[in-house]
Amino acid sequence: MFNRCVDTIIRQVGDIGRMVDEFSGFARMPKPAKEQHDLADAIRESVFLISVGQPHIRFTTDLPDGQMIAWFDDRLISQALTNLVKNAAEAIEGVPADQLVDPHVAVSARRCGDDLVVEIVDNGIGLPTTDRHRLLEPYMTTREKGTGLGLAIVRKIVEEHDGRIDLMDAPSVATGGRGAMIRLTLPVGTGRA
């Protein structure tokens, strides 16, 4: 009994520590230091980082030939992209094993006028149909161990870049499939504040 209590306390302290770290990161979010970067590189790095730890999930990227140059803070946008790809992988882990068919995260990007549009699509558990937009608010989560800060941080980063984030169903939901699609729209920018 003593060992179980100690294990529970250690686990709870770890969870609280993680929440404090995430809250601190959210509260101290730095202003973006925008420079010219290749968004395609940031996407490739984020997908690679998460795919290494998730060998049972198929990750694909659909990026234009050549670079996708824009003005953004590489560290912050990479953090946002990594968080979204990680969320997609975790959504797949939420599907019962007997219902999981071809676990897949697809990340695509394209230029649309003066914007760059990134879409992250998974075939995981999907997003709630009601109050979906509230997932972008701090402390709002549907996960048992979630802190509710991940998407709020992504939203803050994207808004600091004059962009937009949209939470949608994966296209396959229309034909009876499952999953979510997160769309980021970021302006190419000019380097001016």
UniProtKB/TrEMBL annotation:
EC class name: transferase
A single GO BP: phosphorelay signal transduction system
Example GO molecular function: protein histidine kinase activity
This enzyme's EC code(s): 2.7.13.3
Domain Histidine kinase: 1-190
One Pfam short name: HATPase_c
Catalytic activity from the UniProt record: ATP + protein L-histidine = ADP + protein N-phospho-L-histidine
Keywords: ATP-binding, Kinase, Nucleotide-binding, Phosphoprotein, Transferase, Two-component regulatory system
InterPro entries hit by this protein: HATPase_C_sf (IPR036890), HATPase_dom (IPR003594), His_kinase_dom (IPR005467), Sig_transdc_His_kin-like_C (IPR004358)
Residue ranges the record marks as coiled coil: none
Name of the protein this chain belongs to: histidine kinase
Organism: Methylobrevis pamukkalensis
